[in-house]
Amino acid sequence: MKVQGGNHPLNVDPRLTSAAGAANEAAKEVAKADPAATLSVSKSAASLSGVKEELERIPEIRAEKVAQIKAEVDAGRYHRPAADIAEKMITSSLQESLYH
Predict the structure, then answer these.
(1) SS3 3
(2) Tens digits of residue pLDDT in 72-98
């Protein structure tokens, strides 16, 4: 899991959240099929399931950030160093190729 400071997004490896969700779903299916059966899920998996639910509540578009950048563009004050933009593009591309 990667957490960045400030208003940056929270990035969680999708393999972790999907594994926790799958474990949770498996437990539900076992309970339906045989109420006497038990399935143990580690605290880590249960915790990840909670993290996934929290992440799903966070909107993908951060309206306040969009408004701030729009105001900067309108005022002619929006500037980001080219190196920062290039780093974000490369990081995004690498993450996409690794996880998708």
Answers:
(1) strand
(2) 999 999 999 999 999 999 999 999 998
- Three-state SS string over 26-80 comes to HHHHHHHHCCCCCCCCCHHHHHHHHHHHHHHHCCCCCHHHHHHHHHHHHCCCCCC
What is the per-residue burial (b if ≥16 Cβ within 10 Å, else e) of 12-22? beeeebebbee
pLDDT tens digits for 1-38? 444 444 445 555 555 556 656 666 776 776 677 777 76
- Residues with Cβ within 8 Å of 30's Cβ and at least 6 positions away in sequence, in order, are 37, 38, 39
Q: pTM value?
A: 0.33
Backbone angles phi, psi at 10, to 5 degrees: -95, 125
Give strand pairing partners of 3: 10
CA distance 34 to 30: 6
Identify the residue whose tokens are 């059966």: 37
Report the run of H or E that residue 11 belongs to, with start and end: strand 10-11
